Amino acid sequence: MKRRPEPPGLPDTRDPAPGVVEGGAVWDCVEAGAQVQVPEHVADLRVQESRWVGGRLAGVRFTGLECRDTEFVQCDLSGAVLDSAVLSRVVFTDCRLTGTVLDGAQLTDVRITDSAADLLSLRMARARFLLVENSGLHAADLYEFGGEHCAFLGCDLGEASVEAARLRETDLHGCTVDELRGALSLRGARISPDQIVPLAAVLLDELGIQVTEQPPISG
Question: Least C-beta-crowded within 10 Å: which of 16, 59, 136, 147?
Answer without folding.
Answer: 16
